[in-house]
Amino acid sequence: MPHIDLNSDVGEGYGAWSGGPDELLVPLLTSVNVACGFHAGDPGTMRRTCELAASHHCVIGAQVSYPDLAGFGRRFIDMQPDDLRDAVIYQIGALDAFARLFGTTVRYVKPHGALYNAIVHHEAQAHAVAEAVKEYDLGLPILGLPGSAIEAACKPVGLRFIREGFADRAYTTAGTLVPRTQPGALLSDPAAAASQALELAAAGVQSLCIHSDTPGAAELLAAVVEALGAAGWEPRPFVS
Fold first, then answer.
1. Is 62 within the bounds of a domain?
2. What long-range pairs does 226-234 form, CB within 8 A, spacing at least 24?
3. Is 240 a domain residue?
4. Cβ count near 110 (within 10 Å)
5. What pLDDT band is residue 1 in, cutting at 50, 70 and 90?
């Protein structure tokens, strides 16, 4: 059977804010992008999320971000490359400590929000992220948008790049994500999300994402899982 990874951004609570419906999503996922404290996630949330992921045999990834709690990591920050490199290393290490408490480790890295979008085109920041991951652990893949600057930055340093698609986000004609500030940026209809997931899988993406903060995320993910299964796709993490 052909296989594909299913991921979601989880552990996005902070303090009194509980975040998304992680308990409903994680059992259906194969990989989880866990917030590392810069856009969301505090130590207790990181610990609980790693425990939840390990209990469902999900691969844990570090969802790294600009230091932007107030903006949920969705505002571009013109960081110097060395500062961004060290911020990424800091976040991976923090999450890795909690993952190890539950018999696992951080297995990949996925940038979040504005950083994810910036390194589609921003070569200096893309190289900074790639350098950070290489310095921390050359065996960690980076999840990102196909054809991006971060994909190009991975090759010369020997990092594995994983092509990601979004079942719950609209795309531009250029293959980038429609900005969240524009109408129609989110796909909130389960049938539409399932249809797009099938198209992306057929196009060769290796991992499909449903955001935990998309309205009706659990229903969207269930529809995607059902559609993929009916079409003969097996959910499987991209790392063994």
1. yes
2. 226/194, 227/194, 227/195, 227/197, 227/198, 228/4, 228/194, 228/197, 228/198, 228/201, 231/198, 231/201, 232/1, 232/2, 233/1, 233/2, 233/3, 233/4, 233/201, 234/1, 234/2, 234/3, 234/4
3. no
4. 24
5. confident
Write down the pLDDT at residue 240.
81
- Range list of β-strands (E), 11-105: 31-35, 59-64
> CA-CA distance, 11 to 20, in Å (whole number)?
8
Instruction: Specify the amino acid at residue 201.
Output: A
Are 209 and 7 a contacting pair, CB within 8 Å? yes
Average pLDDT over residues 83-105: 98
CATH number of the domain bearing residue 74: 3.20.20.370
98: pLDDT strictly greater than 90: yes
* Amino acid found at 133: V
Residue showing tokens 């979040």? 112
